[in-house]
Amino acid sequence: MRQHLTSITVRTVGQNLYEFTDQITRWTSGTGIRRGLLTVFVRHTSASLLIQENADPDVRRDLLAFLRRLIPEGDPLYIHTLEGPDDMPAHVKAALTSTSLSIPVEDGLPVLGTWQGVYLFEHRQSPHTRKVALHLIGE
Amino acid sequence: MRQHLTSITVRTVGQNLYEFTDQITRWTSGTGIRRGLLTVFVRHTSASLLIQENADPDVRRDLLAFLRRLIPEGDPLYIHTLEGPDDMPAHVKAALTSTSLSIPVEDGLPVLGTWQGVYLFEHRQSPHTRKVALHLIGE
Amino acid sequence: MRQHLTSITVRTVGQNLYEFTDQITRWTSGTGIRRGLLTVFVRHTSASLLIQENADPDVRRDLLAFLRRLIPEGDPLYIHTLEGPDDMPAHVKAALTSTSLSIPVEDGLPVLGTWQGVYLFEHRQSPHTRKVALHLIGE
């Protein structure tokens, strides 16, 4: 049994879902581990992780629209507004989605379903470079 | 240290929470691993995983009712409607719950609390056979 | 490769976010494992886990306020009301946040981002002693 750990970055230019399945898959198969457990961890509190359909882009558009309506910017409820109207909604969106994902690995690849893609979910409007840690243990 | 990986299916007949704690527990104890880490991963984007109370069934009924009201079908917000009025709400519900669960194992069993059950959360109305990957590492 | 497993408790006195990053960090570094995978698992269904900003306390205040408004107590939708008006909202809040967290470990410490703290998210009003399992595998 052995393990690998790396840190990758995902560049974002506004609120959106950024797929990085390929980056994860390439790194996983490059380690030579055939069977194991892959962990994806985002090191931020205003961006998150999501596994979602990667076929029809309308699914992502609708998901973003739903969350934007559910968690609107400029909500008078918030006290934490110094970092901009999109900051506190970003923290709420991150809280309601995921900071870490755990995906079993078989035959050197994450066992994602046919339509599953792994996304960095950016909740801020301004460009960011998001750090994601990848850990793989197996043999 | 060793690991095991398997794929199980959960048959669903409509939007509901389907408990499969027993399936997970039996498989875990059958591997002979006494201490370790169990990962549960659902390979779909319109079904998800949830650990919830398995005592009073009203908890599940109320949780389903809350999500149905929060994320209604036929919402004019959605563009992705070709697969039916329950499809886009299914993706949103999956995004707000979990795709993977990580549960430590002690004495050959997942360390679930007294009232915790593991559920496949089906968000579609029509019957489905859902694939769930189970990974266990330990000794 | 080796592993460690422990159970810790977090005492709560009402609906709030209770940071226990230090407890996790101390235990992790105490095991002597330098690189690995840390799993945090809460053994309850009316409390959950959250990684959120630990700089400005207003972020937590606003997050609590948002969830309280989104998932109000005394909602006539609920049937499960015997355990008090905060019980069913507690289950919903737990369902929308996390039961388990997976955090890679490097140099003997969880690779948390600069502003990330690990919180026990208490959704009940009365005092509770919450059990959290910590599992670490690595070398």
Polypeptide structure, described:
Three copies of one chain form a homotrimer. In chain A, 24% of the residues lie in helices and 42% in strands. Chain A has 139 residues and is of the alpha+beta class. Chain A has a single domain (2-138), classed as Sandwich (Jelly Rolls). The N and C termini of chain A lie close together (5 Å). The mean pLDDT of chain A is 97. The interface between A and B is medium-sized, with 34 and 35 residues.
> Taking Cα atoms only, what radius of gyration of chain A do you get, to the nearest Å?
16 Å
Shape of chain A: elongated
Q: Regarding quaternary structure, how should these chains be classified?
A: homotrimer
How many domains of chain A? The number is: 1
Widest sheet: strand ordering of chain A: 1-8-3-5-6
Distance between the termini of chain A: 5 Å
Return the average pLDDT of chain A rounded to an integer: 97
Brief descriptors of the model:
homotrimer, 139 residues, alpha+beta, Jelly Rolls, five-stranded antiparallel beta sheet, 24% helix, elongated
